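note to self: dont lose this again. the chain is below, predicted strucutre after it. 429 aa total, dont forget to put it in the shared folder this time
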Amino acid sequence: MATKISLIGAGSASFGLNTLYSIARSQELHGSTVALIDVNEESLNVMRKVAERLNKHFKSDLKIEASTEAKEVLGGSEFVLISVEKERMKRWKMDFEIPFKHGIKQVIGGGAGGGPGALSHALRVIPLILDICRDVEDYCKDALVLDYTNPEARVILAINRYTKLRGYGLCPGIYERLEAFAELFGVKSEEFEPFAARLNHFTWLLDLRFTDGTDAYPRLDEKLRERPDFEPLCRELYYAFHYYPSPKDSFCGEFVGYGWEKVPEEIRGMNYIRIIEERGVKFRKVALSFAKGECPLESLPLELEMSTAIRIIKAMVENKRHYEYAVNMPNKGYINNLSKNIVVEVPAVVDKSGIHGLGVGSLPKAIANLCSTQGTTQEIAVEAAFEGSYEKALQALLIDPVVHDLEAAKATLDELLKAHAPLLPQFRR
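---
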């Protein structure tokens, strides 16, 4: 069934390539309109050519629109997908290096989880997201907003608190966890059936089964004994709390003060940042090559898979009930021992009427305590980003488990605000 989907930040090679590939090969969406929006005209043109090639290959009959001005093409959109950043890698490195200089050790510092990096990232990106949402309110106010921008829980809280839009956050983290288990077990990731509840990037597998219904946890215990090198932090959290965390060491380490010591050096700090930077370069090269017609569809990265957003859109336009493992949304009692003022990541059922979170009851007491602290940090950080409040930004740092020194927190915040000043207009008021 034809619909209109707008991609804001379409010039991002990973986001644009994966999403367009998913749309073009989905029979249910053939004949739809796809609006590509990005402030970088060069990247936008590359992705427009990618879209045209995919459209032709899959005979999708898509109408492709493209503009550097959202207001020119947003009208009529039923779905708006957002993945935006400004100077992502440059700013990410600063978010790691500045706190590190003051003795605060974040595992990745990329603003996808906790720590000063998440605060700094939120302060920059939330005003940008809210500006985008004002355009959506003006030109397609009934559209469903699906966001991939980190720090995702904080972004979704801001959208739902400060706009009239329906905003949901999507993250492939649970699928990364299943891929890691597939490698550990020597099976396919599709053979697992997880049930998890949590905050984004700090997930707890409350149940893990194989698709035949067999409990997978006893087998996991065996595999961990065979592989003492497998995920040293996550395995210790599992042994302590009896549920395995997700998506992996590098992300979970952002939420606990002892993460730096347990996470292997090769996947923490600048080493991890370089891995992500190299992956981005690879995607941009592939996208450009494909856009120029220099490589066939088969040469596109193996990471390409059906986008979570497109699975949701297909379920809604076809009114086919679809179960999604993880969606970020305001906690309307889905996890009853966490605050209703925060965003949680829970399983959901999707149909024509929308996305419906599933209640998971209470988290185990100790895990709830870990998540509750992060939830409070999430809420205060969002308020700091919206209000331009130095006081609340400092509070968000001082209750974060990664921060252990008052003077280091103050010095870090002062330097981050100065370094990122061009992207922090709310603090100039």
